[in-house]
Amino acid sequence: MKTENIQEKVVVITGASSGLGEATARLLSEEGATVVLAARRADRIEALAAELNGGGGKALAVATDVADRQQVKDLVDKAVETYGRIDVMLNNAGLMPLAPLEKLKVDEWDQMIDVNLKGVLYGIAAALPHMKEQKSGHIINVSSVYGHKLGPAATVYCATKFAVRALSEGLRQEVKPYNIRTTVISPGAVASELLEHISEKDIQAATAKFVNQIAVPAATFARMVAFAINEPADVDVNEILFRPTAQPI
């Protein structure tokens, strides 16, 4: 597809140190976007930024913990200060430490709420003032197939991802006066580091066995992001749900 609507857009990507975020940064950079890479692992995003810049792209790495509102604000402000605007905010960072509720892994519940939900809200809070002033912009939030259905041992994770879909629809309705587009993307089984967050080893092993048999590459997600961004300004791709063809649930 022609991707002229991606060229020269300034795209902020959280969770850019691996998996879906890294793949998206690579694809959008190839298509001519300026990418601002955010993650806690500074060495990873700095290496990626150096690689993209060395290949003729434009990339900036900003170490960021999305659970810290000020850090997310500083991230977006740095993007605008450096490049003059923000065209796309991709709220991608996420955690999935699956466990039954009866295990009472409250610290993990808090982590998921802080990263998967509050991290998205902080991204919106940071980007929205700039996009309102510009009268343009695109906020992309990442939910999951688990934002559409429940699974055993995934109750809190599902709750955060259902919430991301709800707040994305509310955002969509509220930002119409400012010419801002919104998209929520719900991936199925995609190859990433997400399973590494599961502390229950039996659940991790069973989930990995299922996912590894059917998972599609992270580049699949990147193409979904690129599709939504590349549509003309008068087209608002509000929701994308995708799974591997072989995924039954």
Largest sheet: 7 strands, parallel
Secondary-structure-derived class: alpha/beta
If you average the pLDDT, what whole number results? 95
Order of helices and strands: EHEHEHEHEHEHHE
At the third CATH level, what is the topology name? Rossmann fold
- Please identify, by name, the CATH architecture: 3-Layer(aba) Sandwich
Q: What is the beta-strand fraction?
A: 15-25%
Strand numbers in spatial order across the main sheet: 3-2-1-4-5-6-7
Q: Radius of gyration, Cα only, in angstroms?
A: 17 Å
Whole-number tally of structural domains: 1
Query: Count the strands?
Result: 7
Shape: globular
Low-pLDDT sequence parts: none
First-last Cα distance: 30 Å
- The CATH class turns out to be Alpha Beta
How many H/I helical runs? 7
Assign the CATH superfamily. NAD(P)-binding Rossmann-like Domain
Tell me roughly what share of residues is in helical segments: 40-55%
Q: What distinguishing features does this structure have?
A:
249 residues, alpha/beta, Rossmann fold, 7-stranded parallel beta sheet, 7 strands
